[in-house]
Automatic annotation (TrEMBL):
One of its GO terms (biological process) is allantoin catabolic process. Keywords: Hydrolase, Purine metabolism. This is Probable allantoicase. It comes from Actinomadura rubrobrunea. InterPro entries: Allantoicase (IPR005164), Allantoicase_dom (IPR015908), Galactose-bd-like_sf (IPR008979).
């Protein structure tokens, strides 16, 4: 393979809490100045000065009222509970106080819990919580990165605690997706879906947007919600390598160039390998799943594949450059794939 773009550090992992992946703020102690839902907005925090509403300056974040001691003399603290859109193992948390300068909380901590099914906020609040980020100092207008180490458990919810009050623009919860095997085994599924545990592990170019975007659920609403490369000026083509949710057999590929009207690839190629038997770094180990096939701009393409090869990784080559809005690889988990998913689930939930 040619040199790939860097994909390291916990912030390169999916944001398990972002709204576009199904995250939701289900409860908060207070949201007097700015709504709790803003914590999970997918875009970078914005600010317009002197935009005063009836509650004061408007912020693209969550902001609570100023706390005062109660009758018992205790000041207390504010909190917000987030349901992760993609439950998984949390590797790091970002608490971003962007644009909050005189009203940010001086301290914050983060807890996590696991509650099966579709619990109510009251049931989540009553769960057993584990501290994953201890009480830590914050600065104003700063994105604080906190690595989470030594907590190998699947979590479904997190709670952000701020001491005692103030505003936080964004909460990002990065980690490894751990899907429920009961929702995948015995079914035809999208083996490349982020929500099923797949992700891009290598990529030649992600100048405009991250390649994991093409594995998101739903349809891309604009170019930024897919994967897009810079214009290639040298020979060759751009590519990305996807680690599938588990070993499986791909029977149908959907290659979507929606919204890419003047920057769609001319063609696409798909190849696969079984990383249990060969290294992805060995070019000769890759086997063709779909030969070079012409693409149209702003269109969803569906291609039936032979379905005669068990693979763990797929390489998508776009010729010569451009982007993909979405890539779906529908197929069946092999018995070994089902076993691997089930074993990992038991290990992280037992």
């Amino acid at each position: 393979m040619s040199e790939s773009a860097p994909m390291s550090g916990f912030t390169a992992l999916p944001d398990l809490a972002v709204r576009t992946l199904g995250g939701s703020v289900i409860a908060a102690s207070d949201e007097s100045f700015a709504a709790k839902e803003n914590l999970l907005n997918p875009w970078a925090p914005t600010f317009r000065p002197e935009t005063f509403g009836v509650k004061g300056q408007e912020y693209d974040g969550w902001e609570t009222a100023r706390r005062r001691p109660g009758e018992d003399g205790e000041l207390g603290h504010d909190w917000a509970v987030v349901r992760l859109g993609l439950p998984g193992v949390i590797r790091g948390v970002v608490v971003d106080t962007a644009w909050f300068t005189g009203n940010f909380p001086p301290l914050a901590s983060v807890e996590a819990c696991a509650v099966d099914g579709h619990p109510s906020p009251a049931e989540v609040l009553a769960a057993d919580w584990v501290e994953i980020v201890p009480r830590s100092p914050l600065k104003g207008d700063t994105a604080h990165e906190f690595e989470v180490a030594g907590v190998e458990r699947r979590f479904t919810h997190v709670r952000l605690n701020i001491f005692p009050d103030g505003g936080v623009a964004r909460l990002r919860v990065h980690g490894d997706v751990v899907p429920d095997p009961r929702l995948l085994t015995g079914l035809t599924v999208d083996l490349a879906a982020l929500e099923n545990g797949a992700r891009v592990v290598e990529c030649s170019n992600m100048f405009y947007s991250a390649p994991d975007n093409m594995l998101f659920p739903g349809l891309a609403r604009n170019q930024s919600e897919g994967w897009e490369t810079a214009r290639r000026r040298e020979p060759g083509n751009e590519w990305a390598v996807i680690r599938l949710a588990a070993p499986g057999v791909i029977r149908l590929a959907e290659v979507d160039t929606s919204n890419l009207r003047f920057n769609a690839p001319q063609a696409v190629t798909l190849s696969g390998l079984d990383a249990r038997r060969a290294s992805p770094e060995d070019p000769s180990a890759w086997r063709e799943l779909m030969g070079r096939t012409r693409l149209q701009p702003d269109a969803r393409h569906r291609f039936r594949l032979p379905g005669d090869r068990e693979v763990t990784h797929v390489r998508v080559d776009i010729h010569p450059d451009g982007g993909l809005a979405r890539l779906r690889l529908f197929g069946d988990l092999t018995p070994d794939g089902e076993r691997l998913l089930t074993d990992r689930w038991r290990e992280l939930t037992g």
